[in-house]
């Protein structure tokens, strides 16, 4: 740099002198020309000397460094090589961390303590919520969160990072649903894009959504001071429940690096390992063309045809997702009536009928009273596979027979999905050694405090690992209840220690945690109480419900229960944006008290929370009629439904007229298409 700068200075001085001489004297004489020539030669000689000086300095420095290096001992040479290797390793790790921001926190060096206040097994939505709660005010406990990405729902990015951290089981389906609403596959195909390009566009959008969620969870854990430990946890032999054995994977950068086993000491342990799909026998699951509801995350192409087995929430969600992505979808159900099959999982009869009508209207084929038989999967991935359809058996162990009456006996498709339920993840935890009992399905048995049968009384469970209802919302509430059982009431319980009726809530941590309706959070209590939690189906359209159905209300002693509904087309926003859907109120005719809310249509999973507050607050139809709602919102349907409850005859006439409007609109739309 010194040489370059000297050259610039010399050139500048030469040019200045030359300009000065030429401007002072008119046309230079021979003598003046000689002076200029001498000045230039002198400047050039100075420049050459300066360059030579710099070269001498560099050569001398190099010679000195070479001699000094040769004079070093072998021990010093080894230290230098070791430092260089460490520097390269640090650079490589830094590049890896920069390319994988999700793991910035997860792969920090594990800060092992002698004893933690709480060890949480499983970093799904339930485990993360429990860890954050226990580490934050008012508890401020030392918490370690243990999770193995190999045990997650196989939601990974291209670098193998687990993007399901802190997310619900259905994170991929929710991201895929959102993407299917924003990306028009037919439009992309019409533009001439290849099928793999279309699918990559869809998949990248899903990964972006999942990665955004994982990064936010990492930020929350880091801010709360939760220690994250990658590995697979299990209880040690010998019956102790004050420690866990954590098998950690070897170094990914080292070939054949062995796994290590670490011991974690903790006063309390929460098992939140979630659930995994139930896989029926006889189905050749391969994770390439034959999937369960978790491995579908690894789908690597956009199928043009899809077969789905199941009649529950997950099956309906994926059926509409792939139909919206342009695939021909066939649903195979064991029941002869898809509406009754949906009613068995809690849907109101009209909501179930609306969902089934939408499935059929969307072009989805429903094979009733059937189950899948043999699979013929060709070696060519471009060729469709053939699935045999047989008559559904009435009992387990029966041999299925052929379908009769001209019904389809086989179906061809590009991909198959089994969505027939889930089972708790309790294998390989060594629960028997810890004295923890499970039910016939593998769900951990707990009391009303969510405490397991471990003799020490310090092991708790929350979420899908306990069994039904397999919902992220109930699992999160169970996580809060479990932390409260361990360490006492939280801030919200301390600030508001009374029920809606004014009764005091016992804040003793030894008592069973309950909500304001007096409901406990153990699986048995949740299953028996229709007021315990809201339920949402993230299909298109959505479905959601809270409280009693008409049949449940009558069975619970509300003999004079009634119901009334409003169609989406009856409110202004529904008429303009989304006319297909309905909202139903179940109420007590004697007191006009609202007992249940059931919705099917756009934003149903959001609208249900207002309905939940109406039921919990014991609001009446008159309260709805006297309420003012913002214009052009779906919430206007609550007032319309209340009015229809009090005027059933007029309501039927209005719905008939509204139905004609929807039918005419759909007819015109079909003609235009």
Task: Write up what this structure looks like.
By secondary structure, the chain is α/β, with parallel strands linked by helices. 42% of the residues lie in helices and 17% in strands. It is built from 21 helices and 22 strands. The strands form 5 sheets. Strands 1, 2, 3, 4, 5, 6 and 17 form a 7-stranded mixed beta sheet that branches. Strands 8-15-9-10-11 form a 5-stranded parallel beta sheet, covered by helices on one side. Strands 18-19-22-21-20 form a 5-stranded antiparallel beta sheet, sandwiched between helices. The chain is globular, with a radius of gyration of 35 Å. The termini are far apart. The model is unreliable at 1-33, 51-109 and 493-498 (pLDDT under 50).
What keyword list fits this structure?
673 residues; alpha/beta; 7-stranded mixed β-sheet; 5-stranded parallel β-sheet; 21 helices; 22 strands; disordered N terminus
Q: Characterize the biggest β-sheet.
A: 7 strands, mixed
Strand content: 15-25%
Shape: globular
Helix content: 40-55%
CA radius of gyration is 35 Å
Q: Count of helices?
A: 21
Class computed from helices, strands and strand pairing: alpha/beta
Beginning-to-end CA distance, first to last residue: 72 Å
Kindly state the mean pLDDT as a whole number?
79
Low-confidence stretches: 1-33, 51-109, 493-498
Total number of beta strands:
22
């Amino acid at each position: 740099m010194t040489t370059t700068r000297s050259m610039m200075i010399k050139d500048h001085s030469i040019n200045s002198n030359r300009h000065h001489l030429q401007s002072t004297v008119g046309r230079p004489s021979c003598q003046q020309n000689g002076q200029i020539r001498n000045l230039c030669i002198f400047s050039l000689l100075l420049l050459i000397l300066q360059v030579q000086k710099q070269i001498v300095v560099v050569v001398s420095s190099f010679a000195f460094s070479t001699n000094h290096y040769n004079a070093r001992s072998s021990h010093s040479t080894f230290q230098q090589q070791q430092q260089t290797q460490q520097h390269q390793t640090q650079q490589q790790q830094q590049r890896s961390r920069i390319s994988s921001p999700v793991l910035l926190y997860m792969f920090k060096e594990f800060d092992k303590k002698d004893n933690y206040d709480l060890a949480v097994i499983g970093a799904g939505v339930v485990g993360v919520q429990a860890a954050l709660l226990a580490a934050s005010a008012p508890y401020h406990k030392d918490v370690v969160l243990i999770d193995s990405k190999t045990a997650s729902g196989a939601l990974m990015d291209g670098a193998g990072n687990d993007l399901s951290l802190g997310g619900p089981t259905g994170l991929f389906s929710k991201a895929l649903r959102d993407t299917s609403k924003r990306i028009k596959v037919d439009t992309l195909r019409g533009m001439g894009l290849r099928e793999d390009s279309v699918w990559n566009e869809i998949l990248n959008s899903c990964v972006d959504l999942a990665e955004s969620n994982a990064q936010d969870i990492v930020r929350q854990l880091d801010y709360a001071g939760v220690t994250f430990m990658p590995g697979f946890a299990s209880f040690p032999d010998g019956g102790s429940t004050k420690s866990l054995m954590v098998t950690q994977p070897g170094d990914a950068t080292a070939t054949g690096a062995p796994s290590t086993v670490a011991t974690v000491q903790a006063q309390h342990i929460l098992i939140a390992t979630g659930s995994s799909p139930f896989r029926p026998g006889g189905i050749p699951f391969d994770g390439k063309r034959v999937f369960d509801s978790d491995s579908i995350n690894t789908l690597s192409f956009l199928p043009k045809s899809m077969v789905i087995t199941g009649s529950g929430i997950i099956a309906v969600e994926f059926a509409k997702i792939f139909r919206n992505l342009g695939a021909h979808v066939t649903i195979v159900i064991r029941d002869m009536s898809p509406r009754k099959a949906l009613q068995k999982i809690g849907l109101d009869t009209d909501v179930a009928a609306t969902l089934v009508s939408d499935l059929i209207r969307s072009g989805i084929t429903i094979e009733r009273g059937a189950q899948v038989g043999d699979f013929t999967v060709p070696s060519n991935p471009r060729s469709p596979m053939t699935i045999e359809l047989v008559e559904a058996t009435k009992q387990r162990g029966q041999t299925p027979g052929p379908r009769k009456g001209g019904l389809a006996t086989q179906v061809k498709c590009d991909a198959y999905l089994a969505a027939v339920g889930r089972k708790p993840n309790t294998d390989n935890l060594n629960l028997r050694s810890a004295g923890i009992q499970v039910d016939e399905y593998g769900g951990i048995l707990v009391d009303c405090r969510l405490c397991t049968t471990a003799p020490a009384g310090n092991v708790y469970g929350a979420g899908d690992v306990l069994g039904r209802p397999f919902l992220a919302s109930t699992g999160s509430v169970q996580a809060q209840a479990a932390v409260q059982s361990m360490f006492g009431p939280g801030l919200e319980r301390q600030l508001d220690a009374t029920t809606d009726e004014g009764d005091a809530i016992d804040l003793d941590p030894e008592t069973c945690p309950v909500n304001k309706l007096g409901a406990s959070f153990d699986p048995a209590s949740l299953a028996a109480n229709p007021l315990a939690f809201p339920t949402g189906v993230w299909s298109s359209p959505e479905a959601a419900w809270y409280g009693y159905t008409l049949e449940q209300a009558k069975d619970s002693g509300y003999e004079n229960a009634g119901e009334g509904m409003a169609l989406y087309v009856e409110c202004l926003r529904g008429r303009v944006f989304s006319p297909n859907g309905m909202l139903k109120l179940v109420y007590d005719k004697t007191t006009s008290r609202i007992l249940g809310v059931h919705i099917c249509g756009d934003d149903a999973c959001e609208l249900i929370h207002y309905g939940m507050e109406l039921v919990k607050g014991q609001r009446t139809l008159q309260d709805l009629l006297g309420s003012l709602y913002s214009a052009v919102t779906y919430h206007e349907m609550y007032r319309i439904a209340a009015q229809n409850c009090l005027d059933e005859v007029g309501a039927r006439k209005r719905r008939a007229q509204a139905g004609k409007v929807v039918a005419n609109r759909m007819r015109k739309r079909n003609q235009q298409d």
